[in-house]
């Protein structure tokens, strides 16, 4: 069997989760690992001088556990999916089968050991005003305190984005304001072409 790792990154509320889920539905033998599932307990996330929890930093995430799960998939994606009941229709894999792992999250390209694993990279972006509006109507646990977006979320996005732009190459920037169907079609076409290339290899 062969494997393909696809990274879907982007700013908060940019549409990366929606795109990842839709892509998963279109791609056979695929599964998703979401970075948001690896936040550390609120009690150990530090606060800045304004009392804002520093969630938008790699230190707020248990990247060791996330990398361990990704390594488990890389070693045996078929077993990984069976153990988690991610694809109950899965039959015994053949040499030409390609398994696809979609990793989505807001800092997946800022963590070098993870970024180096990706075969395809996509980054969803939307303007400040749209991002702020979407964030304001979303329910978080714990909820965002007053001023959190402008005082922490957006400044950290700009900092993390600058770091990504400097250190990461071969990344496709996606306009999150485009229709979801259009974005899905473009990414799905790209990923499917790579799957076919892998199948024909060797």
Automatic annotation (TrEMBL):
Keywords for this protein: ATP-binding, Kinase, Magnesium, Metal-binding, Nucleotide-binding, Pyridine nucleotide biosynthesis, Transferase
GO cellular component terms, semicolon-separated: cytosol
Tree of life domain: Eukaryota
Name this polypeptide is given: Nicotinamide riboside kinase 1
Lineage: Eukaryota, Metazoa, Chordata, Craniata, Vertebrata
Gene Ontology MF annotations: ATP binding; metal ion binding; nicotinate riboside kinase activity; ribosylnicotinamide kinase activity
GO biological process, one term: NAD+ metabolic process
Similarity-based family: Belongs to the uridine kinase family. NRK subfamily.
Annotated pathway: Cofactor biosynthesis; NAD(+) biosynthesis
Catalytic activity, as annotated: beta-D-ribosylnicotinate + ATP = nicotinate beta-D-ribonucleotide + ADP + H(+); beta-nicotinamide D-riboside + ATP = beta-nicotinamide D-ribonucleotide + ADP + H(+)
